[in-house]
Amino acid sequence: MPADAPARHLMHVFPSFGVGGPEVRFTTVANRLGPKYRHTIVAMDGDFACADRLDPALRVELVTVPARKGRALDPGNLMRFARVLHARRPDALITQNWGAVEWALAHRLWPVGRHLHFEDGFGPEESDGRQLPRRVWMRRLALGRRTRVVVPSRTLERIAREQWRLAEPSVLYVPNGVDCARFHPEAPRDPALAAVRRACPGLLVGAVGSLRAEKNLGRLLRVIARLPGDPPVHAVIVGDGPERSGLERAAARLGLAGRVTFIGGHARPEALLPWLDVFALPSDTEQMPLSLLEAMAAGLPAVATDVGDVRAVVAAENHAFIVPRHDEAAFASRLAALLGDADGRRAVGRANRLRAERHFAAESMVAAYDALFVA
Predict the structure, then answer these.
(1) Where residue 72 falls among pLDDT bands split at 50, 70, 90?
(2) Domain 191-359 belongs in CATH node 3.40.980.10
(3) Cα dist from 360 to 170, 315, 347, whole Å
(4) H helices within 147-192, ranges in order?
(5) d(CA 331, CA 227)
(6) In terms of pTM, does the model score above 0.85?
(7) What is the C-alpha separation between 186 and 246, in angstroms, rounded?
(8) Would you say 210 and 247 are in contact if contact means Cβ atoms under 8 Å apart?
(9) In this predicted structure, what is the pLDDT of residue 271?
(10) pLDDT of 44-54, one tens digit each?
(11) Which CATH number, 3.60.40.10, 3.30.1130.10, 2.60.120.260, 3.40.50.2000, labels domain 8-177+361-374?
(12) Average pLDDT over residues 178-206
């Protein structure tokens, strides 16, 4: 740990600091910016699993702040959060998503330094596109004109302005970025999937991400079960979460024993993606998923549901494989078309790789965040 304190102290409040999109994105940014900042990380649920991905040389403090859970606004939480803020006095408070919105309100009532609020998307309760009224009103209350609200998708940008009615200058679109050198198609491969590849006479379809309800990996299993069994298509699911046991039972019910491999959480997805033939994103709700950017950087074609900014993110050559969210027959049809066309897979994968390099490089994202942190 460096002896000299970095110039600015950032306090980050996450609903959870387990391994997920916002958490992985933060570790990318923090690692690249290095000792310029020191960080206090609050995880509302006490889960700090993603801290393992932070550079050990960074100055990072992990803090658990007890909070009462409930549907109603809790004045006790607000007072507790305000005391923590005033005791630590960060140069900037950075709150993440709905789960940290009470911290945003506490800061608006008793401000300390600057405030940035990041929104990345919604859980299953809002996956149909309808906003819960109490959440809309709470965001309007907590996110004042002096708060910069950062979103990674044009869809969220529109929601923030039109439904949450946040002041236009306070909403800033910063697309997610990916380390294209790390996620290169020729990146070294993890031998964990070598045996699967050898044993599978067909092709590998993979999904990467937290196993939560809104990711709807059950949809992918049902789609795999629809596909012709000769040669059999094998599904690889990378990630962990509360849905895993249910997904394993679903795979057994669908007769997919031996055709689905659950890898669990993995710190180096770049070593697994090169084994895949097609990337799958069956989510009910997304905005700008990092897993999709990583797959694109790895040179993979994707079959995905048409949610958030997914269609706008992939290359034009991939548009034909973006399907309506509830149309599993279309998902199966488009996946089968890709699996049956090796030249087409390679062409779409190359186009996705080029688009990731040109439009979604991590360097641009990190520079934008750095400018926000010091503004």
Answers:
(1) confident
(2) no
(3) 23, 12, 19
(4) 154-162
(5) 10
(6) yes
(7) 34
(8) no
(9) 93
(10) 999 999 999 99
(11) 3.40.50.2000
(12) 88
